[in-house]
Each structure stands twice: as structure tokens, then as C-alpha cells.
Amino acid sequence: MSSPRSETIATTLTDAPPASAIRSAFAAKAAAAREFASAPVPISPGARAARAAKALAVLATSAAKAAVIARAARPAAVAKAEIAFAPTAALPAEPASSTRAGGALKRIVRDLNSRARVIALVSGKGGVGKTNLAVNMAIALAAAGRRVLLVDADLGLANVDLVLGQRPRGDLGHVLSGKMALGDIIQEGPAGIRWIPGASHMPALLKIGERRREALLERLTSLETQHDYVLIDAPAGIGQGVLSLARQADELVLVTTPEPTAMMDAYALLKAAAASGPDAIGCVRLVVNMIGHRKQADEVHRRIAQTAARFLRLDVGMLGYVFCDGHVGRAVQKQQPLLLAYPHSQAAWCMKRLGGALMEGREAPLASRFAFFRRLTGLFAAGQTI
Questions:
Q1: What strand order describes the sheet that includes 316-323?
Q2: HEC states along 96-125?
């Protein structure tokens, strides 16, 4: 009997991207490299302060407009909801199309009531420590009392199980094939986190019957309402699946190291994700991993942030950094999360700060990006894959 990991690897080998997609990826990386090489020189403190003041003014104006629109739209939305859910015993039967519309409105109202903040951890290349950060940041959030769901969305190279030291009972592929229920594959991890292996099988949702697909989407969407945070450990690189995840998440945590290749690939990922404009993706914040000193992290952030601002009109914030620490490798060898194996190490201290920085940011998810799993399935229906 083959293991879940061997089945996933076999799927990877049979679903290789076409040559045209590979050529497009190389072209995107080449364009990103030219822009990154021409990064602007550091701006003066006065100019930086002026830009910050202007950005704050724009944000304040946008927030005020949004509040006015929300207040004006609220009575109408409430009235629609009351009409949709009012008893209809004394009224003639409504047509099927109207019933479907009411069901859609009901799902929207439910999804907006309480939904997790979906954060995708992405990187331009492998080997930068993204999965290790995802696991330990999830534990840091859970230790602070947050309800956390970690989704392993890597394709073929999923390593969340190795970092946690837990063997998955199955993955989403087994659920889609009818061999297991969704509740059977959700793993209970340390510090109270929960995690789902094999989210790379999401495109197969389109191959099952409509009733089964709708039931599973309802279950996946209900998971969003049962947690405060959903952390997505996305595949490395700039493949179409990574871009799909990046564009649907509330926030991106971009992981890189001070190596020039990692920095350039991180910017290439941003450029590809924001190809249709800066509004195509949510808030972007940077984590610089494996640094030797604090100034190194500041320099990496400066280069990426200034290049993204100049060519992409995209604001890249700084979430934090993690020092290069031998305890990280020793924890991986022990197959234990760093925060549990070496909680007093320097890297563990940095990862706890990253969890705190996430909680200090925007707590509420973007209202325009409800039902993450349902939106993702809509992209697969349009021909995009993980």
C-alpha cells in the first residue's frame, strides 16, 4: 500500500507544468532581475517622512470613505437578509433561481460574520526556512490563545509533518476519493494548533459530483469560521498555484534570506503576483531569515521594499527577522518544532516576536475576500491549478 507522501509525489510527476508555463516563469524572473538590479538609492529621512505622511493621509481618506459607504449600505443589506430569510408559508412558491439566490446570500452573510484571517507564507525559492517559520509561528499564535489552522499546501515536497514530527493519517486527496472524511485528516498539533495535509489536491474538487463538492466546501468554509488564523504554507517559487494562493489570501508573509538569489526570487514572486496591479494581493510583509545581524535584515527590506514601490507601486512592510541559529537544524533533526525543542534559543525568541507582530497587525480579514477555499475552487474552475 502506498503512503500519502508517495501518492502526492506521483501526482507531482504526472502533472508537470507545460513548456509554455516554464518559459513564462523564466521571462518573469528575467524582468524581475532587471528591475531588482536597478533598485533606487536610499532616500533621505525627510523624503521618507513625507512619503509616510502622504500614505497615512491617503489611508485615512480611504477609511473615511469606506465607513460612509458601509453605513449607507448596512440598512439595505439588513433588509435584503430579512426578506431572504422571512417565512414564506403564506406566499406563493418562489422560482428555483430565486431560491438559489437566497442560498447564496445566506452563505455570504454567514461567511462575513466571523472568518479567520488567512495568511499565506510564500517564498521565491526553496531552502529559505518557510515551512519551519509557518509551523513555529502557528505555535506562537496558539500559545497566545489564538485558534490556528495550518494548511500544508506544498505540492510533492510537503514537510510540515516532518517539522511537527507527526505522520499524517491521510490528506485531502483521500477525502476527495471518498476514502476518508474531512474530519479524519485534520491533525491535532502541539500547543493546540490544527493542520491539514495535502491541500495541493484542491483542484480535484472539480472532478467530484456537485453535491459532494458543495458539502465539502461547506465543511472547509466552516473551518474558517472556527479559527482566528489560517496559515497557508504555500509551495516555493512563482508557479501558477502559488500565485493563486497569494492573490486569495488576506495577507502575504514573504520569506527570504540575505542571499542575492533569494532576494531576487522574492521580488520576482511579488512582481508575478501583482501583475494585474497592486490591489491584486493583500497586505505584504517581509520576514528575513538566517541573518547574522539586525542591519542585514534592514538592508534586505530596504532593497525589496524600494524596488517594489518603484516598479510595482506595492508597499512591502517588515514583519521581522530570524537570526541564523544552529538550534533550528537540531530541532529539525529531532523532528520537533523549535519553540518546543529549544524555547530559549535566539531563533525561538525571534519566532515568538513574529507571532506577536502578526497579532499587532490587522486582526480582521478583508471583507472583500470571504470564503477562501470557495474562492480558490472558483479559480480552479477557471483553469488555474496548484
A1: 187-188, 194-196, 148-152, 229-233, 117-122, 251-256, 283-291, 316-323
A2: HHHHHHHHHHHHHHHHHHCCCEEEEEECCC
Give the orientation angle of helix 210-225 with respect to helix 372-381, to 10 degrees: 140
- What phi, psi does 291 have (nearest 5°)? -90, 160
Q: State the pairing for strand pair 187-188/194-196.
A: antiparallel
DSSP at 286? E
Q: Count CA atoms within 13 Å of residue 167 on its CB side.
A: 3
- CA–CA dist 265, 51 (Å, integer): 27
Alpha carbons 262 and 268: distance in angstroms, whole number = 10
Q: Is 380 exposed, middle or buried (0-12, 13-18, 19+ CB in 10 A)?
A: middle
**Using one digit for the tens of pLDDT, what is the confidence trace for 327-367?**
999 999 999 999 999 999 999 999 999 999 999 865 555 55
Determine the Cα–Cα distance for residues 220 and 213; give it in Å rounded to an integer.
10
Where does the chain have alpha helices with state H?
Answer: 4-14, 19-37, 45-85, 96-113, 130-143, 160-164, 172-176, 182-185, 210-225, 240-248, 260-273, 294-312, 326-333, 338-341, 346-360, 372-381
C-alpha–C-alpha distance, residues 299 and 293, integer Å? 11
Residue 213: what residue type? R
Cell numbers given for 205: 474538487
pTM: 0.71
| 175-200 exposure pattern, b = at least 16 Cβ within 10 A, e = fewer | bbeeebebeebbbebbeebbbbbbbb
- Summarised one tens digit per residue, pLDDT across range 21-65 is 666 666 777 777 777 776 654 555 555 555 555 555 555 555 555
Could you give the CA distance from residue 360 to residue 91 in angstroms, rounded to a whole number?
Answer: 50
